[in-house]
Design brief:
The complex is a heterodimer of chains A (about 100) and B (about 475). Chain A is mainly alpha-helical and about 100 residues long. Chain A contains 3 helices and 2 strands. A two-stranded antiparallel ribbon of chain A has the order 1-2. The longest helix of chain A has 18 residues. Chain A is flat and about 55 Å long. With about 475 residues, chain B is of the alpha/beta class. Among the domains of chain B are: about 250 residues, Amidase signature (AS) enzymes (Alpha-Beta Complex); about 80 residues, no CATH class. Chain B is built from 15 helices and 11 strands. At the A-B interface, helix 1 and helix 2 of A face helix 9, helix 10, helix 11 and helix 12 of B.
Chain lengths: ~100, ~475
């Protein structure tokens, strides 16, 4: 089942900062859920195509015409931190 | 006394007996008086509602209403973007978020002249079956305030049940319209996937999300659906098919319709009162001229597990955007990853975190084929079951839920909560339409829902059967006693 290492790894992929206690609770709860999900492995799906959308659409196209877009001020209105016309964030790349 | 349904209201407006403004004030007063008890509304938009109502007044004065929803007081689940009006998804991470645009559903309702009273409560990011996972408010079942209204669209369902809106809109991904409709004793409809645009609907699981209406009766529900259905160039998954006049076919009755009763929807563990009340409801339909036939949908027992792979997987991708960069909550961090991780941990509640973790896990390298790949194949089996059944019958009739509204705090185990949706999940996976109609009460006065499931894009037949049932009974006329 899911190990402590797995949970730490998945939490990093999911960008979730969990405390040690939270990681352990999460591990237990995920294991309980996975125990139910594991029943799926026994279902015979040989020769069955996967379904990604129940009512599928294919190649929905439109003309590549430029259209008015949202004004910059509206897009920045919810910004937690802005600098001019930019969203400001902490450093991304290590020095 | 002010009529309760939209069709009665608009008839009264046309006859000059009352006006949209007067009715809007009555609803706003009722919200002010009762919503402390019910907790349906997260945001009440009184001034906007009054402005919309005044515009509707003028149109009725001139004898030129826009259509059957003109002046109808409605509410939207707080998962639909409403320009300039806070949209929270029941989450701290969007607690102060104000969308710069309207969802297509929002826009179509405005174009139809509907009066939006406000935004209603939900399980956070639509993940839940009781609305207990809202980070912002508790919503109570108007029939028993100690019990849950269902979820995730508990707010919209409770609002209609309590007379705090004449109609409302929610979303159904695993049952989140039909189940709260059953729990609150109102009509709740999940259309065919793609029938209603998802543009501006905050995404939970993109292949499973279905916007749809709640109404006090089937006629209102049909009118509400008609107001929002139809292709939208802004949603590439929206279906390009004509929208029928749902109200026009409504009174055709069920004579000659073949109804399938699926074995797998009457399970050993289900509440015996629910089973007996639903079976009695099915007999009413038989008495009205429908024929009954037993059918089997053998993949049904696997649908829950399949859903709990696919929905969290899609959610983990959809919710990756909440990172504190462009909008929503931001918790400072020493670098970008630290900021994002702290923001998301602080902003998301326990259920959302659980599903993001589960979804990330089943999509991760080494597990993708065993879990997600396999789940997608089982989804095909679920879909094929419906295709096979609909070669023999026109509709399926079944309970909406295996249980009755439970008490707040009663279900703390996540898996126990997931079991609420066993009868609703399959229709989401197959994309076929389903509706829940009130069909009775337990001895202790809790509502029970009858579920009718139809063929892809055949909402008309489904609505027709629901209407025939409603005309032969009066469960939908009962109202909770809230004072």
């Amino acid at each position: 089942m899911i190990s402590r290492e797995d949970v730490v790894h998945v939490a990093r992929l999911a960008r979730l900062a969990l405390t040690d206690g939270e990681l352990e609770t999460m591990r237990e709860q995920l294991n309980a859920i996975l125990a139910h999900i594991d029943a799926l492995k026994a279902v015979d799906t040989s020769g069955i195509e996967p379904t990604s959308h129940a009512v599928p659409q294919f190649n929905v196209m439109r003309e590549d015409e430029p259209r008015p877009c949202f004004p910059i001020e509206e897009m920045l209105a919810n910004a937690p931190d802005r600098a001019g016309d930019f969203f400001r964030v902490p450093r991304i790349i290590e020095e | 006394m002010t009529p309760r349904t939209i069709h009665e209201l608009t008839a009264a407006y046309t006859r000059g007996e009352t006006t949209p403004s007067r009715v809007t004030e009555e609803y706003l007063a009722r919200i002010a008086k009762l919503d402390d008890k019910v907790g349906a509304y997260l945001t009440v938009t009184a001034e906007q509602a009054r402005a919309a109502a005044r515009a509707a007044d003028e149109r009725y004065r001139q004898g030129r209403p826009l259509g059957p929803l003109d002046g109808a007081p409605v509410t939207l689940k707080d998962v639909f973007c409403t320009k300039g009006v806070r949209t929270t998804c029941g989450s701290r991470i969007l607690e102060h978020f104000v969308p710069p645009y309207d969802a297509t559903v929002t826009e179509r309702l405005a174009k139809a002249g509907a009066v939006m009273l406000g935004k209603t409560n939900m399980d956070e990011f639509a993940m839940g079956s009781s609305t207990e996972h809202s980070a912002l408010k508790v919503t109570r079942n108007p029939w028993d305030l100690a019990r849950v209204p269902g979820g995730s669209s508990g707010g919209p369902a409770a609002a209609v049940a309590a007379g705090l809106a004449a109609g409302s809109f929610g979303t159904d991904t695993g049952g989140s319209i039909r189940q709260p409709a059953a729990f609150c004793g109102v009509v709740g409809l999940k259309p065919t996937y793609g029938r209603v645009s998802r543009y501006g609907l905050v995404a939970f699981a993109s292949s499973l999300d279905h916007p749809g209406p709640f109404g006090a009766d089937v006629l209102d529900t049909a009118l509400l659906l008609g107001g929002i259905a139809g292709r939208d160039p802004l949603d590439a998954t929206s279906i390009d098919a004509a929208v029928p006049d749902y109200a026009a076919e409504l009174e055709r009755g069920v004579q000659g319709l073949r109804l399938g009763v699926p074995d797998e929807y009457f399970t050993k563990g289900m509440d015996p009162e629910v089973e007996s009340v639903v079976r009695a409801a099915i007999d009413v339909l038989k008495g009205l001229g429908a024929t009954l036939e037993r059918v089997s949908l053998p993949a049904t027992p696997h649908a829950l597990a399949t859903y709990y792979v696919i929905a969290p997987a899609e959610a983990s991708s959809n919710l990756a955007r909440y990172d504190g960069v462009k909008y929503g909550l931001r918790v400072p961090g020493h670098d970008l990853i630290d900021m994002e991780s702290k923001t998301r941990a602080a902003g998301f509640g326990a259920e959302v975190r659980r599903r993001i973790m589960l979804g990330t896990y089943v999509l991760s390298a080494g597990y993708y084929d065993a879990y997600y790949g396999q789940a997608q194949k089982v989804r095909t089996l679920v879909r094929r079951d419906f295709d096979a059944a609909f070669r023999r019958v026109d509709l399926l009739v079944a309970p909406t839920t295996p249980n009755v509204p439970f008490k707040h705090g009663e279900k703390t185990d996540p898996v126990q909560m997931y079991l609420n949706d066993v009868f609703t999940i399959p229709a989401d996976m197959a994309g076929v339409p389903g509706v829940s109609v009130p069909c009775g009460f337990t001895k202790s006065g809790l509502p029970i829902g009858l579920q009718i499931i139809g063929r892809t894009l055949d909402e008309s037949t489904m609505l027709r059967a629901a209407r025939a049932y409603e005309r032969a009974t009066d469960w939908h006329m009962r109202r909770p006693n809230l004072g």
